[in-house]
Amino acid sequence: MIYLQINGQIKNKKYIYGYLENLSRSLNIHRLRSKAIIVRFSKELDDGNQGNCWGDRKEGYITINIAKTCEGEPYSTAEMMQTLAHEMVHAKQYLRGELDGYSGSWKGRKPRNYQYHNQPWEKEAYAREEYLFGTCW
Description:
By secondary structure, this protein is of the alpha/beta class.
């Protein structure tokens, strides 16, 4: 079973753990042994995004950061959980070797100079986030 950890102050951690377990099952990464996903909830992220994800398949860990506020305004729980679903798709991509952050490759190929929304890994994450949020939360 994949190891899941939540860091930072957030209400209803128990439910969020259940949500993470549901997401990992839906993404078929729940059986990956000796792998860890660490989710950090922070006030705001330095890059101004709602969330980000970084992973290392060889080391077996994923770090997901989720912002709780933007310019002082809080995100709703639903917004944070949908962002978490999006970032969990990236976690799957890293753990399955589809996305390699070190070489910048996608499924073994060097990507072209894609605009953000045209990156294939982002297309997959955006396409799946609403469904995952709706079925797993």
